[in-house]
Amino acid sequence: MSARGRSYRYVGPVDLEDAVRPGSGGCRISSTAEFGDWIAGRSAAELAEPFTFVVGTDGALRLAPRRSEHVACAGGDMVLSAGEIGFVREADQWAVSEISNQSTGYCPDIGSWSEVARALDDVGLERPSGFTHEVVFRRCPDCQEHNIVREDDFVCVFCGSNLPETWNVDPAV
Fold first, then answer.
1. Is residue 52's pLDDT more than 80?
2. pTM for this one?
């Protein structure tokens, strides 16, 4: 755990992590003005779909195009949360229209919402009260594969073993 909350290290494919180059992270957004500058540079096609986001261990929001890897958006660093985020323009201001913790590279727990909320509040973006789509990640204690739990069925899709009720994706935690 960091001083802010649980931090997540990258647990995805090694080749994606190895491809990260220094200074190649997502755009750090820490104010309304920075967000305004960033969003103004997005095309209509980009705005029509969600973006990749991470919240760094410094608590700052980082954004990248949707098809960006979360580990690249994070510059290879640990994160407090990661997922996908969409924006909508409402009454002359931007707001979060959809947001999830969908990141198979970091597999953040749904409890990471508090860090996301804090980062969005720091930027001054209107937001929902939680993830609009929650993804429950678990690592199978038997075969070690990462699973997405669907419909509260805590059973490994790879080997059929029971999955734990609590987050356990990172074996180092």
1. yes
2. 0.94
